[in-house]
Design a protein that fits this description.
mainly alpha; two-stranded antiparallel ribbon; 128 residues; 5 helices
Length: 128
Amino acid sequence: MVVAKNEDNKKLYDIIDGQQRTTTIFMLLHVLASKQNEKDKQETRKYLYQKGELKLEVAPQNQSFFKTLLEAAEKENISHCEKDADTEGKQNLFEVLKAILDKVSKLSEEGVNERLEALLKMVLMRLE
């Protein structure tokens, strides 16, 4: 993944390369977190939310759909969101999340925790 500091807000980074991978990992983390007990879920959500807002912004035209989709995923039912997937970007988000939900639904609690632990140990290497 390649990022650059946002020109308007130096506290933010723009993803230059790796947007799809980052979005997929974010959705996977979100779904895995929803399977945790409440205490652990709150701990994991620190990586996903800041002041109640998603930490990851996708393309502006897809952001509202992305948020709605993730909220529906917490209830493990995103099928009603498919009708709103009216662009290629939204369809891609829907299909990826649908596949993630399917795979995660087959995991044991231990499997969920193992995958969360691995994802949260990802390493950041900074080249400036």
